[in-house]
Design a protein that fits this description.
Blueprint: E1 3-7, E2 12-16, H1 23-26, E3 31-38, E4 42-44, E5 49-54, E6 60-64, E7 70-74, E8 87-89, E9 96-97, E10 102-106, H2 108-114, E11 120-125, E12 131-134, E13 141-142, E14 147-153, H3 156-159, E15 169-175, H4 184-195, E16 200-205, E17 208-211, H5 215-220, E18 228-234, H6 238-251, E19 292-295, E20 297-300, E21 303-310, H7 325-349, H8 355-367, H9 370-381, H10 386-403, H11 407-411, H12 413-428, E22 441-445, H13 450-455, E23 461-466, H14 474-482, E24 486-488, E25 502-506, E26 511-514, H15 518-541, E27 555-560, H16 566-571, E28 577-581, H17 595-608, E29 614-617, H18 645-650, H19 652-663, E30 671-675, H20 681-698, E31 706-710, H21 713-717, H22 719-723, E32 728-731, H23 733-741, H24 759-774, E33 778-781, H25 791-798, E34 802-805, H26 810-818, H27 822-833, H28 838-848
Parallel strand pairs: 21-22, 22-23, 23-24, 27-28, 27-34, 28-29, 29-30, 30-31, 31-32, 32-33, 33-34
Antiparallel strand pairs: 1-14, 2-3, 2-13, 3-11, 4-10, 5-6, 5-9, 6-7, 7-11, 8-10, 12-14, 15-18, 16-17, 16-18, 19-26, 20-24, 21-25, 25-26
This protein binds phosphoenolpyruvate and magnesium ion.
Pfam family, one: PTS_EIIA_1
Organism: Rhodovastum atsumiense
EC number: 2.7.3.9
Length: 852
Amino acid sequence: MPEQAIKAPLAGWVTPLSELEDPVFAGLVLGDGVAIDPVESTLRAPCDGIVTMLHRAHHALTLRTADGADILMHIGLDTVALGGTGFTPHVAVGQQVRTGEALISFDVALLAGRAKSLVSPVIVTAGDRSFTVADRVLGREVTAGDILFTLIAATAAATAAPAPEAGAQVARDVVLRIPTGLHARPAGIVSAAARGYQAEIAIALRDARANARSAVSLMGLGAQAGDILTLTARGPDAAAAVEAIATLLAEGHEASGPAPSHAAPPAVAPPLAVPEPPVPSPAAPFEPGTEQALSGVPAVPGRAVGTAFPLRAERVEVEEHGAGPDTERQRLRQALTKSQGDLQAEIGRSPAGSQQGEILQAHLAFVEDPDLAEAADAAITAGKSAGFAWNGAIDRQIDVLRGLGIDRMAERTDDLRDVSRRVLQALSGKAQEAIVLPPRAVLLADDLLPSQLATLPATDIAGIALARGGRTSHVAIMAGSLGIPTLVAVGPGLARVPEGAPVILDAEAGTLRVFPAAGTLVQMEASVTAARERSAAQLRAAHEDCRLADGTRIEVVANLGGEADIPEALARGAEGCGLLRSEFLFLDRVTAPSEDVQHATYQRIADGLQGRPLIIRTLDAGADKQLPYLDLPHEENPALGLRGVRVGLWRPELLRAQFRAILRVRPPGQCRIMLPMIALLEEIRAARALFEEVRQELGHTDPVQLGIMVEVPSAALMATTLAAEADFFSIGSNDLTQYALAMDRVNPLLARQLDGLHPAVLRLIAMTCEGASRHARWVGVCGGIASVPRAAPVLVGLGVTELSATAAAIPAVKALLRGLTREDCVRVAQQALAQDSAEAVHRLLAQTWPEA
Ligand code: PEP
Ligand code: MG
């Protein structure tokens, strides 16, 4: 098809690209075409074709014609910065569309107010084959569907480029500093620069590789700020080409307009140098007769006696090469639709508001993710099979998450693998075989995926031990909500446990005992049964307020990470919330939540707690909780940099909006406010000044407690001084331990030594309580040690009167405290302070309360 009419995708006034206030489009850097100043709000297909790119911000889309031309439609100028607000896509990458079909709807009023311009370029991007734009309509009004221009394909001979001279390959890595990633305009600049050299230049991001001369191919990399890109070039001017392109990528300027005034986002650290547990070794299975003990990290506390049931991951084999792009595209579309339907059905079956439902919702989002579809489509176009392409797209995302070096993100790779497996299964067309578990099965797996766990009968599972896995992975969270004791990171030795072996899983001590002696088994079984009965009794009593045996009131409240945690917390006897980690509202977004959005959420949480106290911690961003839109400057040591309250003071508009949102919650006294990571007196003063300003603005006169977290040694050491200005203290033992012991809390190599019961940490807690008492302030603990039942009496003995724990720990914490007087607690606290190591403290507590 040498010539093709391209229709207007929008009604409006057509102008030449040269008149645009954007040097990239005006300079035809991305390609030739026209621009339309729209008078309607739906972008339509200008010809038949396949959607090959839908930008994650939903403002731009590329359609490939049957002849291989790429038509890029870009709604407005600089609209990538809206991060998707105001755009509703109606198509997905890989979808075949007909002329006139709706592609994207947009909110004209919103764009008119927030975008630089509504004028929308429609251009033929420079690809591997050349096309000429002819007979273009200019300087008049069109309605959608009118002919806009004619596309003429150049002959192969005319487009054949001279082969560059062979030469040595030049390569270098560069960190992408363009804040909004390699989107249309920077990709255009880079490709134009690449076309100025004879060398063939490729840019690779993990396993994806793009031809640097093709803007569409570069966009298809999905490269984000902070990604490490590898440039390779071969040809006579390879070295100069690589230098020039690397400079463009590393300088971080947007293609037009002034460079952003803020600093470039931090470079992404290379993946954590955590050795992946080796693939299970084929070492001989353990034999009956000799007890073997493996150790792991407890993820869900509890003990179980049962029968080993190794769960082998079912591998779905995929062919690399497909039966042609059209067939493979169709297969992938069908598999995605099936997976979507299955997930929706599973979501429908999971209890409303349950964590399981939320996890499945996240999986549904992956199945519907346009970037994944786009990446898979690119591989299919290159001749790969649907399964291979989908797997590759997922692997790339897994690399991205791992590359962030953030545990929370790395643990989400399980979910991606799970979605990968689900879609591959759908592609294979085979139904999954049902697994029949023995009674009291202790599941053993290299790693378990959330959907695998969801399909097994929970009542038959006594425990779970995983060779890999993370303490906060979704599968651990699901196991926690099902009450299944779970050990993670047991290592490759787990593969040596044979099916049917009797095992004792102790997710308190962190051990898996294989082939224990018969006597031990009997003893352990009795103790597990007694423990089960004990926890049932503890749960029955959990709804009473907590008082020591001498009547001293100790509040036992819950840590909440969001609204969804409330039902579980109340069911376990939480007397309120001692720490609402407000980050949940700020994560996974492209801009900060507005005051109104925050207010509505806090109000719902306050209502959900039915009048119980609610302590909202202001945003604790930075370090392991990065929010790209905050544009925090690059730091060598982010844990020691701009984080916690420092971020709020650095960007006071954020803190102000959060204070306003909290102060507007009704009834007025229910919420208290807590500032994270206070290290200096000046920080409380600055935050309080802002708080008082906001109170005056709102005419808020009711008393509201403004407290601080004590999680930096300086705060504990200066507790008397700080107590004069803070209404209460809550000890963040996770960070306090990290900073006291100088051990990174996300470094798995130090996980075993990072212990909040270390006497050094206990002494800091004692100092905090002592300082608080001078000004009659109350002290709580909301870090991890508040959820260790045996630690509760020690903390109370040091002067703590509020414990904010995970929901699961509340019944046991209350039960232990109820049997003790304040005097008992003080005695054990003094003994703990006198120990010389965390291990010794644990020993002391285990001897004192062996059952707890
Ligand atoms: C802590 O540091 O103990 C704490 C509760 O805060 P986070 O774990 O959210 O940093
Ligand atoms: Mg903390």
